[in-house]
Write a structure and sequence with these properties.
single chain, 31 strands, 8% helix, Neuraminidase, globular, 38% strand, mainly beta, six-stranded antiparallel beta sheet, 442 residues
Amino acid sequence: MPRKRAGTRTRSRTPMGVAAEPLPLPRVLAPEAHGPEHVAVDAEGRILTGTADGAVRRLTLSPDHELVRSEVLAHTGGRPLGLVPCPDGGLLVCDARRGLLRVGPDDGSVRVVADEVAGSPLRFCSNVATAADGTVYFTVSSRRHGLEDWLGDILENTATGQLLRLRPGGRPEVVLDGLRFANGVALAADESYVAVVESGAYRISRLWLTGRRAGTRDLLLRDLPGFPDNLTRGPDGVIWVAIAAPREPALDLLHRAPGPLRRVAVPVATRLRPRPRRTVRALAIAPDGRVVRHLVRRRTPYRMATSVCALGDLLVMGSLIERGIAICALPPPREATGAAQSLCHIPGRISVRRQGAPPSGSWGSVRSQGAGAPSWRSHMGVSATPREGAPPSGSWGSVPGVARPAGDMTQALIPSRSSSRGSDAAGAGWSASTAAPRTPPR
């Protein structure tokens, strides 16, 4: 078989790099909480969420994981989405209609922290994360569509999302623009970078904050097996990624179509609004950027899990559309076998291949960071090769005003009328990136 020439672009549909682990059947708690889009855990182990009626709720579980208390902390007067606890017991809340809010720790008072950026109103504030020095990073999913028309933005692929930064005593500023439905946001445990989900592009971008890469942007994960949503970082530094729905080839074709045709398709698709598939999926990213868990449950009554977080030995899930949060036991990590598919983390951009696939030499040479760069295998056990045809990190430029690579076709969310088993049986291919800075121009 002829060897593939280095530099030739391939559209990978390889199996998942980390072997999928089955999730136990989720159990629903607090069904009065309709649409708990994001879930977080406070310092005392209580679950926090915002719901469709504008309430910010706090749920307390017993040691045997039964709900013992459900209380409303505040009403935002809008639609709360992402939220994060503050050190003083208060909360920062992204409200899709009112902007970035703060809920007081004692009286449930609600104060607007930011409702505009550069003179423009915050139309669709989505998710938030805070740094140790009080700096706040938060996302605007779209500047064209509101929450009620989030599906239209995904289908149209407007690329009008933003990542904003608010320093203590300052004003909101745009640090990343042109994002494809900006969604979840999380800081690395050492705050060396901030990760932001681009749901419409099936990837997680990374903005470096410290070191020689500060101010540059690259990809933390790309070609994910579904529609990534919220990010939640646990006390162990692991970032959990909720995959709200599997990829759909029909929407890949739509995203390849010209803009006018995509806009025509939006009202048709939004009228049909098929029900999301009965699949729950979550990924866990270690502090060093490795994907270490891939958890899947199919044929579950709890649909469109838009957020996941770990609470001890539990996995807690929230959904934009369901009633109540869902919990299930968090399976212990499963040791990989020689037959398992897994992911190797090496310097440079990488992609995943099956054990027994052609040796890495036939896929082109690995681009290394240098003689002193670390090189190691994930404990999940695998081999990997550089992703051919991937844009070098230097081509992304500095922030703001980042140039996006051309030809990066993506998929969207809504299922086709065909059976769900075929496209979701093994999961679409994905790859991770840990690219070091390269000297532009390329």
